TrEMBL record, chains A, B:
Residues 4-64 form the HTH tetR-type domain. InterPro entries: DNA-bd_HTH_TetR-type_CS, Homeodomain-like_sf, HTH-type_TetR-like_transc_reg, HTH_TetR, PsrA_TetR_C, Tet_transcr_reg_TetR-rel_C_sf. Residues 27-46 bind DNA. Keywords: DNA-binding. One of its GO terms (molecular function) is DNA-binding transcription factor activity. This is Transcriptional regulator, TetR family. The keyword Mitochondrion does not apply. PANTHER family: HTH-TYPE TRANSCRIPTIONAL REGULATOR RUTR (PTHR30055), TRANSCRIPTIONAL REGULATORY PROTEIN (PTHR30055:SF235). The keyword Nucleotide-binding does not apply.
Length: 223, 223
DNA sequence: CGGTTGCTCAAACGTATGTTTTAAACAGAC
DNA sequence: GTCTGTTTAAAACATACGTTTGAGCAACCG
């Protein structure tokens, strides 16, 4: 190995193992043995395990946010005055994720799973890192969502966005396993693109559901 | 302390710590020192850490499934011939969760968080345990969902149920953090009951969204 | 050529973990 | 009173972890 493809091999192995098992459950020794590099290489190149986790995220998140930013530019250019619709915004996001150059066939699945983990596993350092580095494109997405759902209150919108993120991250993070189950059970093959195509209408309908009047949790609620 | 409230003190402490930090991130020493019992007591009473995790789940899941089963009985009794609607089914589930007798004020939050963790943190032993012990009530819920959405194809329903589970598990597994963010940002306090009340209409609308005609993923899709 | 630099390697370090063991106390039941 | 099941205490166990060290190696530069 001429020069350090060691760094990339570590990142590849770490990415895959983190996605499979989570952060705490993945040891540096697993990573380095999968990457076929020396154990000390991680601390030499990245400084610490936490820094490696952040590097894994930076490697796919930075190009993604660039793609996403131009997708939003295109979208806003097409919709001169009126704000983009909810469906258009969601499709722009989905397209950017699906069309990302992938390192391997599992690319999009790993991508989503890691995003889910970042939310779920409460790694303080990761949350701070992501907030510091990527708050801008995320904020732009939120702004578009806000303009596309003017009838929602801020609180309603906040929660529905969480529901949306949850459905997406969860489904995509285990989409390989889910696809397999479906194939065995119903004999149907499904691509990630098709899952996305089913997901967008679901999310769109959920986001635009009729607003409930709180508090609804009385005995009559269940009658 | 006359006889073994040691077991309950261990379960209480473990439940709370697991919900706060996850399974791998919680050590037996944290649990025993919080419970103010001896370290060896865990292995004496439960045999292993994994067995303790399963015991924590069994303690709240068993009464919950009993409650849920009677809730489904009531529901089907009220709807003599016609199958219960989607909203009714979802509310029956939500009601059973919210109305569960709680050990303390954090009860329902911990309950949800643990369920989310069970899905998210891929603890092999836990998944097997839950499948072996609680597959029946889950199957009944699926049957009700199927009867409530007769217009959906099996494939569409399959994916939309995944989306639904994802939104729920994901939101609930980090609901404390999400609640905090919302409180800091908008100065609004939200109870778990209110989250559930917002979630049900979202899921219901998503499940009943118009069915898309595949394949929609052409360049024109994004135009 | 000598010296510096970037990198790899095996080995060790210190710490934390789950688990086990020993002993001694304590309770209630027969 | 004795026995049985609990509980505590303290210590040790073996293992795994993230991190550090120092020697070695190759390439590059003056």
């Amino acid at each position: 190995m001429a020069q350090s493809d060691t760094v990339d091999r570590i990142l590849d192995a770490a990415e895959e193992l983190f996605a499979e098992r989570g952060f705490s459950e993945t040891s540096l020794r697993m990573i380095t043995s999968k990457a076929k590099v020396n154990l000390a290489a991680v601390n030499y190149h990245f400084g610490s395990k936490n820094a490696l986790i952040q590097a894994v995220f930076a490697r796919f998140l930075t190009p993604f946010t660039v793609t996403l930013d131009t997708a939003f530019d295109d979208l806003e250019a097409r919709c001169k005055d009126v704000p983009p619709t909810l469906e258009q915004t969601l499709w722009a996001l989905t397209e950017s994720a699906v069309r990302m150059p992938q390192r391997n066939e599992k690319g999009i699945s790993i991508f989503m799973r890691l995003l889910g983990l970042a939310y779920t596993q409460s790694q303080g350092h990761l949350r701070k890192f992501l907030e510091a580095e990527y708050s801008n494109p995320f904020g732009r997405f939120m702004k578009l969502l806000k303009d596309a759902t003017p009838d929602l209150s801020a609180v309603d919108r906040y929660w529905r966005i969480q529901f949306m993120l949850g459905a997406t991250a969860f489904t995509m993070s285990s989409s390989d396993a889910l696809r397999e189950i479906l194939e065995n059970k119903l004999g149907v093959e499904t691509s990630v693109e098709e899952i996305a195509a089913r997901l967008v209408p679901f999310l769109s309908a959920g986001l635009q559901a009729e607003i409930v009047v709180l508090p609804p949790m009385t005995d009559e609620t269940f009658a």
